[in-house]
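Technical note accompanying the year-one report. For the benefit of new consortium partners, we illustrate the data format agreed upon in the data management plan: each record pairs a sequence with a structure-token string. No post-processing was applied to the example shown here.
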Amino acid sequence: MQTSAKVPLCLSLITLTLTACVTKVPGQNYHLSDNGYATVISAPHSKLTQQQREELESRKDSSSFKPPAEYYQFKEEAQKLRDILREKEPDNFTEFRYEWEPEFRHLFSFKRDPQQTLARYTSNPIFESGIQRHMRSFLEAKEKEIWNVLAPDGKVFALDVINPSGQINMMKGVVEISTGAYEDKFFGLPNLETYRNDPDIEFTFLERRPSHEIIDPRISSHIKLFLRDNTEGEEVVFASQTGTIQLRNGCFFFKEKGALILFPESSNLGLDQDGYIIIYNGPDYITRVGEKMRYYTGAVPVVKPDLADQLQDACGQYPVVKINDPKSDYIAQKLDEY
């Protein structure tokens, strides 16, 4: 390896019981060992994106938000109208809410004939009508129904295939389920095919992509193994925890656990604008390798021997754990401030 234009740096990787001489990659913030694999022991925290800065500014503005005079002036009348509609239109009236943007309004939603229905009960022009497919109680029942299939007895039954999350979207009138799985694998599971065309559930799936879209080509040759799988763990941690992902001679380690890492199938590997290696899953789950990161599920021992064997054969006989969707703890703290 030609190193005349690079400054050599030798790091003692105590946990690996070896000393590796590594060189800094020009223009990029990681080092290469003599065998060409990347090493990152620590990194400064991630920077807020322009979108995140704008989001924080909008939150600051909203923290001093004061409802308009119409809110107080018609609050009691609006609540009385809501109660009347619940009683008189139980099969049609779905929801009453305040909308603040782009302009403040009192919105009463119905399954059908919204304008005509509202006009039967009020002539107040400040009250507006809208259409909405279902009442919240219906969608809550639908959400419970699908989760009883996905997680009987409160535990997701096929975490080696799916990694689901969900919410009710009243505006669209559907239950939204992010499956964390490929479509064919998801509907190949027991009792799920019947929901494929359910109009009240909106599923999103992983997309199969070529390897160059999963690992940035600029660093792919410097990574020994970036293993992804929705494997099941032995336990689930719901409270957020923190830790550090390190890259040692092309292998990913959980510093605090002394273990190799298995990532979910939705994870990607790239470089940020400052040349630091990042692990990301969409705009909300990004962390630099080497910085303090936050995660919500894991780190749990991997129970599939074939997956553990792949990592251990490539990277050494260390424990193997899975973590889901790590993100920068610094950015998470910033966004949590408001």
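Partners are asked to follow this layout when depositing records. Residues 213 and 268 are 8 Å apart (CA to CA).
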